[in-house]
Automatic annotation (TrEMBL):
Protein name: Uncharacterized protein
Source organism superkingdom: Bacteria
Amino acid sequence: MSCSELTSQCLVAIREELKPHVHGGKFFTSEDVGNLVRRLNTAISLAEEVEEEKSMLERRERLAGGRQLGPAIVGPNVVAFRGHAPTGGSRA
């Protein structure tokens, strides 16, 4: 069973796989332990990505003071600039 792209689903899958081992019902082979370590590494990577994105968003919000300043990064190679209203009059 492989991990999905959601950290919580990955961890739930690992937990469900470990449950039969709780009271000595099954034993781990070295291959089982290696697979578990790889899956935990995947879950750790997914969690780190979420933490990094959250940190960047919080930093951007702090720097902007709650308002949009300058360009907004929409995606890779895409930057959206806020519109400029004309000063002192209406548009022609």
